[in-house]
Every structure is written in structure tokens, then in C-alpha cells.
């Protein structure tokens, strides 16, 4: 099972190399990392030249920009840090599962996490969530495992979370601990001395706090926007209008549970089926109740459920928010798979092997098929990679491609910041003041309107799913 997990993550490289950045989030973050690598400013991420990006702390951008510095500009390069971080996350999952339920359950947990829909997709994406998941997983494992190096890694993990996503990391790790204290009224984790807590606080503060102080001094207003806007108003206000860098996501209350179900495919139906089977018989209910009474089991359940419960009443959410809860889900489901195997009277049961390996192929196979489909028909996805390449091949050196009224993030990235933005009202003045050919891209309805007032020549070979391209003169 461990080999399956590593093999599936290796297969993820195919999509990382061949799939272009698809609007909106991935090219937006890739462009921020590109600007960081280009400018050499390792303190402030920049949304575009002159506009600081206050939406996220810089850890993911640091690693993506460093990867760009080392390997150049390519899709897999900026995606590589998330892949490495996801692979590293398997380590604390395996260590915690092995300490709780043995090496077979640990191998199953690693396989389940690596082949769940959300972790598998995040393993090859330019996003911040895999870094948050690593930080929270290190903390949750380090709080339980008694060895001194795990205590140190717990502090490092919290610092990673604070530099990857912000104070939300503290909420995510504190919530399950409080739930366990309320449920069991005693410590779940090994005793930690006051000196140990102080040392952990010093580690976290020394790693995470300096950047927050320097960031505010460099671009005043960061604290107000990031701490209040991104961490309070975003989750309390449906369709939050204060987002400076995109649009808020208006969702129905409770949709996070559906997000969890999708994020854990194909394992969630199997996990729910095993739970239903246990509840169907009295012997299974007794065994399940006995297991839940153990503090360690309760700790994992609280870890698996807290994030989903926390975001239940929030409307402004994404399915990626459930990622920090999935290591605990993987450990619990891995343990259940092993128990099923024991009930089949053989730890090497072919039935267990089939139960464990068949679902593991589901998400990687779908991702591979999607990659092949995108390579055959790249215009099917919202990406301007092909459009930019085709326009630049026919335009004279130094020519500017003007996007009218709107410009996608992928257009900004693939043009290396050379795709300019102009309003349809200002376009006639631009045409009048410019000699030579002008290349423009616009949404189909905008392009149809412009063709009635400007001498546009359509360039259909350069069209994309989102934009139509034309040339003036």
C-alpha cells in the first residue's frame, strides 16, 4: 500500500507537466511567484507591479519562486513545491497511524490520503493549501507522539501553518484539542512541561512573527486587510465585497459537508459503508463504542470533523478548506480497513487487497484521462496558454496584446506580464495614437460589439474558450 501511494504521486507528475494553468487560482499564484522571483522581493508578494498581495502569507510563494529560480519558468516547476510538501505530509500520517494502530494501518492511511481526490489534486497545484496541511499535520502528530523531535516538529508545523495560511492554522489545531478536553476531561497527549510549552512558543514566534512585523512595515494596511478581512469578514459575510484580488464564493450553508464527500472520494463511500455495517449489528456497535471511548480515537475523530464543523455556517468557502482534516480521515479509514481484513480471517486476504487497491486507482486514472483529453483539445479549458503563444508567433517583436475590459490571470502569466488591459471606451484613442498593427483579445460579446465600430480582422486560429482575437491594421 505504501508503494501504491508513492506510485500514484509519481503519476501525478504527468498532469503537472502537461496540463496548463487553468483560471483562476493557479495562474494567479504562479504569477505572484514569478514576480517574486523576478523582483527579488522576498518580503512582500506582489499581485502585479505596484499592488501588494495581502491575501496570503508568503511561504508557498517563497518555495515556488525558489523553484522558478532553480529550474526556470514551466508549469511543473511552480507546482513542484506542493508535490514535495504532499509527499512529506505522508510521513507524520504514517508515524501517527503506526503508533496508534500498527504498520499495516499506517500503510493503508498513507495510501488513502495520497489517492483521495483533494490531496491528489493539491499535490500538483500552485496553491497554499498543501502547505497548511503539512503544518497542521505536523502539529497534530507532534502533540501526540512522545519523542522530543516530534514536539519540536509540532512547533515547526504551527509556524508553517502561520506562514502558509495565517491565524486560521491556529484555529484548526486548537479546535480538536478543545473538543477532546471537553469530551474526555483529561489529557489525550503526553504531559508536556511548562519549559516545553515555552520552548515551543519561542520556536513558533521566532519563525513566524518577524515576517508579519516586517510585512506591515513595508506595506501598511496589511494587518487590517489580512487579519480582519480575510479571517473574519470573508467567512461571516456571504459574497464578501472586500476581496481585492478576486471574487467571494457564495455557497449554501452546510455545503462544506458535500465538499468533504467529494474531497475524500473514492474512500468516503467505503468509509461510510464500513461505519453503516458496524452500526447494523449489536456486536459492531459495542466494538465501535469501545473504540470511541479511547482518547486517541476521539482525538482523531475531532481532528477529522472540526474543520467541517467550523465552516458549516460559512457561505464563503472552497472545497480546499477541508484538506487539513483529511489526514485524520485517512488514519481512521486505514484502521477500519485493517479491522475488515482481520474479520476476513487473514491479514493477507485477497478481499482486503482488492478493497484497498481498487479505489486507489480511481482518482489517478481520472486525472490521467483528463490530462490526455486536455492535451488533445486544449481549448476545452479556461487557459490562455495557446492563445498567447499563437498571437506572439504572428505579432512583430515587442508588440503588445491588448485585452479589452477583462484579462485572465493565465493571460498575465503566459505573456510574462506583457498582456495589457484597456477598456473598450479607451480603445479608439489607443488605436488612433498607435502606428502599425494592434492585436486585441476580448470576450465574444465585447468582440462582436467592437467589430461594428472598428476595422477588426478576426484571427480565429488564436481563439480560446474565453476570448476572441482580432487585429487592427
UniProtKB/TrEMBL annotation:
Instruction: Supply the Pfam families for this chain.
Output: PMT
Which sequence ranges form a coiled-coil region, renumbered to this chain? none
Give an example GO cellular component term for this record.
plasma membrane
Q: Which parts of the sequence belong to the ArnT-like N-terminal domain?
A: 22-226
Location comes to: Cell membrane
Q: How does it sit in the membrane?
A: Multi-pass membrane protein
Recall the GO molecular function terms of this protein's record. Answer: mannosyltransferase activity; pentosyltransferase activity
Q: Does the keyword Membrane apply?
A: yes
User: Alphabetically, which GO biological process terms does the record hold?
Assistant: lipopolysaccharide biosynthetic process; protein O-linked glycosylation; response to iron(III) ion
Keyword line? Cell membrane, Glycosyltransferase, Membrane, Transferase, Transmembrane, Transmembrane helix
Q: Main subcellular localization, coarse class?
A: membrane
Chain ranges passing through the membrane: 76-97, 130-150, 156-184, 196-214, 260-279, 291-312, 318-340, 352-380
Q: What is this protein called?
A: ArnT-like N-terminal domain-containing protein
